[in-house]
Write a structure and sequence with these properties.
The relative contact order is 0.16. By secondary structure, this protein is an alpha+beta fold. It is built from four helices and four strands; from the N terminus they run αβββαβαα. It is elongated and about 50 Å long.
């Protein structure tokens, strides 16, 4: 019985990896390529941050860091260890982001 549960858990993880990899690949195709980074966010799992070649960005949440890394690898994009330096500088923010960030600062 325990073996069956493990097999089901493994299959569920494989499906999640495949689903995330497809979303990552779709993002990369829409933005002329992409790079990514996975970061642990606690019990919730891991955040996958994607930055397109055109400066567009997005994120996804995976149930674990391991699943996030597998999905990034399966999607075949460049993976960074941290979100800083040249990688972070590739993000292009627009009026919406600036307005949203300013709103947070002034209680909006």
């Amino acid at each position: 019985m325990a073996d069956t549960q493990q097999v089901e858990a493994d299959q569920k993880a494989e499906r999640k990896v495949a689903r995330l990899a497809k979303q990552i690949s779709t993002f990369a195709k829409a933005h002329g390529g992409a790079e990514g980074q996975a970061a642990y966010i606690g019990e919730r799992g891991a955040r996958i941050v994607l930055v397109g070649a055109d400066g567009g960005w997005g994120d996804l949440v995976a149930p674990s860091t391991e699943i996030a890394r597998q999905a990034l690898e399966k999607a075949g994009i460049t993976v960074h260890e941290s979100f800083d330096g040249e990688f972070a500088a590739k993000v292009q923010t627009g009026p919406y982001e600036w307005k949203r960030m300013a709103g947070i600062q002034v209680g909006g």
